[in-house]
Amino acid sequence: MNKKNLIQRGFVFGVLSLAAIGASAPAYANPAQVMLEGTVAAKCAYTSGDQTISLGEMADPTTGQLNAASINAKSVKLTGFCNGINSTITVAARGINNLSLPSGYVAVPGFATSVGFTSTATAGSVTSSDYSSDTIQPTAKPLGLFAGDITVTLSNATQLASGVLVAGNYEGSTTITLTPSV
């Protein structure tokens, strides 16, 4: 054997030896991504429960007619949130009426059984209000993103008929509606 054959055989033997011990072409990374997806629904909620404003005695002790001070400037705080950028707030007031009257009661001249008032809700810089005894449909006001206190204040209390308030238990309400929208 000549020197050239020995070199060629050595080269072949070396290549075969490398193949036998596992030498291979370099590996390339092949990554895969896992995407994360979810949603958040637009919602509004109160974190405080329903509240009650106690009006106490509503009649003036000397005239028997409405003492507006028993209602005006009374307020309560609700706490809530809306996470939709186009959320709205609506106030709907329902007059204060005598619940003690028998079914079929007919109004007697000189006596009153109902009181009207304005209810105003302030949420951040947005104010919405409704008068309890009008026939105008409450209008939704843009609220947007909101989290915090909503102050509900009563004002403009008036008897809906002239005369003395009829004795009994009176009840009215204000509904503050937060409506979510994206």
Total DSSP E strands: 10
Total count of domains:
1
Order of helices and strands: HEEEEEEEEEE
Q: Which percent band covers the strand fraction? A: 35-45%
- The whole-angstrom Rg is 39 Å
pLDDT under 50 segments (min length 5)?
none
Whole-number mean pLDDT: 90
Task: Briefly note the structural class of the backbone.
Answer: mainly beta
How would you describe this protein?
Strand 5 (114-123) and strand 6 (126-131) form a beta hairpin. It contains 1 helix and 10 strands, in the order H-E-E-E-E-E-E-E-E-E-E. By secondary structure, it is mainly beta. The model has no long low-confidence stretch (mean pLDDT 90). The chain has one helix at residues 3-20; strands at residues 44-46, 75-82, 88-98, 111-112, 114-123, 126-131, 141-142, 146-159, 164-165, 170-179. 17% of the residues are buried. The protein has one domain (44-179): Immunoglobulin-like (Sandwich).
